[in-house]
Amino acid sequence: MEIMQAHSDTEEHMLNEREIESCYLGQFIPVHYHHNMLMDHNRMHSFKSAIYHAVKPGMKVLELGGGTGVLSYFAAQNASQVYCVEFNPDMVREARRFLAMNPNGHKVEVIHADAFEYLPPEPVDLVICEMIHVGMLREKQVEVIESFKRRYLARFGGPLPIFMPEAVIMAAQPLQLEYDFEGFYAPIVQFQPTNVIYPGTIELAQPGVYAIMDFSQPVGDAIAWEGQFRMEQGGRLNALRFITKNVLSIVEERGTTIDWLNHYMMLPLATPLDVQAGDIVQVSFAYRAGGSIPSLEASMRAAVVERAGVPVQVRDTVLA
Hints:
By secondary structure, the chain is α+β, with helices and mostly antiparallel strands. It has helices spanning 2-22, 31-38, 41-54, 70-76, 89-99, 141-156, 293-299; strands at 60-64, 81-86, 108-112, 126-129, 162-164, 167-177, 180-181, 184-185, 190-192, 201-203, 208-214, 222-230, 235-251, 256-261, 264-275, 280-288, 301-307, 310-311, 317-318.
């Protein structure tokens, strides 16, 4: 009895920790943030195009982390049944309210449940999961999908459904970034829309891909990379841009993909590097998918390792 009680207490403690963490990292995103996502044209158009392509008439679809229900609504235009799972009770009410106002909304069943635990009552053809932050940070995309795969196979066997996004490609890029705010110097984390040119942002080298996640295969949550960049121009290297391209759906008949590019995320370099065109800069970092932005910052290192074709003695520089 004592062992059973201890096991129960441990499970309750883990659940409480997850609920606390969810308030900051993942599922309990404020309602107004979901409303802002409805106004993100790039996100909305990309997902609508991908869902309309992927969902064939009669399919059964599951959405994990449904928010306002908009992606489930897109799926319901062709699917015969859509299960929309949402953990935040405020968003459950919002999704049900909005879906009742829209055509085919009756085909969406909004379920108040934890995406880490929910399984549909029947096999599904497609799973939509948009718990995506730049670099797979903060939100629980990887953890939720991998947990779902294990539980789905145990209940229904194979094959697994198609996942949306099907894959994620992540890259980093050295920058010279302006940190002057009306004369106030503040090296802060910044986010930029991908379709806007910022005069204070100078790209010093081409982006380098540091990770590719294919959700049809097992995906681990540990991300570690060490690579080199050749500077295309001189300047003051004081930030890294993180780029996340979500491959929402593969259009095999055209040999193309339908993609969604997250906002760029720029992290400041605590000790800037003066670089020249042709310099080789070595960068390394490591973090866990779903972890915090500071956890990535704390791991980052950058140094000039070659100048004018001559190796340079490496002195680590911390990105923070």
